[in-house]
């Protein structure tokens, strides 16, 4: 489902944000991508759908070569890739149901689906099913800005389901939430992915969440693939090495260099 071969990305200042990454993720597999800030996690997720252009290497998603794809082919790929980000990006001024309906816009291309009250009954019914799945059907008519952070992220998951993706990319989906809300969101995300046999790549920096939810763990450090294995085969020492003082200082220094250079990670 996801194939990455010799993937590299170099920032304008010459720093290798990704350095020769090789990764394969099978259909229906859910992996945790670990590493602290500036390890290359978010850069890798963006490269998968060419939100940033790789410097070298090859990427294939769901049978389509992403590197070298035409604009039309790339749009088709992106329609099949659902996203859940730390910045939830709901439209606060409209209803929860309307926000979930926005997930259909990539495949229906109908501006009437921007609002629940102007969309078709088919879209509204499907959006309600997605809301029911994340436990928020009673909140359908509320404005998005009236929800808590955990509820808003569950709306984002419902919106992702409305997209009908085959692949889900989740970038630090619970980093801004308190531990209880974060666990609730992770439970919902992992459950819906398993139910629909979706392929998931979820970046995290919290070891306790990786241990609780990760079956397979892929770890990056300074843009390089440090480890790739099943959680049952990894010790806490293996994982803690990703967050050693020396590696954090090195990556923090690298991150500062990019900030000074005005590079948007």
UniProtKB/TrEMBL annotation:
GO terms assigned for molecular function: ATP binding; ATP hydrolysis activity; transmembrane transporter activity
SMART domains given in the database record: AAA
Any one cellular-component term (Gene Ontology): plasma membrane
PROSITE patterns for this protein: ABC_TRANSPORTER_1 (PS00211), ABC_TRANSPORTER_2 (PS50893)
Domain of life: Bacteria
Gene3D superfamilies: P-loop containing nucleotide triphosphate hydrolases
Record-annotated ABC transporter domain positions: 2-247
PANTHER family: IMPORT ATP-BINDING PROTEIN (PTHR24220), TRANSPORTER, PUTATIVE-RELATED (PTHR24220:SF659)
Listed name of the protein: ATP-binding cassette domain-containing protein
Organism listed in the record: Cryobacterium levicorallinum
């Amino acid at each position: 489902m996801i194939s990455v071969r010799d993937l590299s990305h170099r920032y304008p200042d010459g720093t290798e944000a990704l350095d020769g990454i090789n990764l394969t993720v099978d259909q229906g597999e859910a992996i945790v991508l670990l590493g602290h800030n500036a390890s290359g996690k978010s850069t890798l997720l963006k490269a998968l759908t060419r939100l940033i252009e790789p410097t070298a290497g090859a990427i294939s998603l769901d049978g389509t070569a992403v590197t070298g794809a035409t604009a039309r082919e790339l749009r088709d790929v992106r329609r099949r890739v659902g996203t859940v980000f730390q910045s939830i990006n709901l439209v606060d001024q409209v209803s929860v149901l309307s926000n979930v309906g926005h997930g259909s816009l990539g495949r229906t291309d109908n501006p009437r689906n921007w609002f629940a009250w102007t969309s078709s009954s088919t879209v509204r019914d499907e959006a309600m099913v997605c809301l029911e799945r994340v436990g928020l059907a009673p909140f359908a008519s509320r404005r998005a800005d009236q929800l808590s952070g955990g509820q808003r992220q569950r709306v984002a998951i419902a919106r992702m389901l409305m997209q009908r993706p085959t692949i889900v990319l989740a970038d630090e989906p619970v980093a801004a939430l308190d531990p209880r809300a974060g666990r609730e969101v992770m439970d919902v995300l992992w459950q819906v992915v398993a139910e629909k046999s979706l392929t998931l790549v979820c970046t995290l920096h919290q070891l306790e969440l990786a241990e609780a939810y990760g079956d397979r763990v892929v770890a990056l450090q300074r843009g390089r693939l440090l480890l790739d294995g099943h959680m049952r085969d990894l010790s806490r020492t293996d994982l803690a090495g990703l967050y050693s003082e020396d590696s954090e200082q090195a990556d923090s220094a690298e991150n500062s260099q990019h900030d000074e250079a005005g590079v948007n990670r």
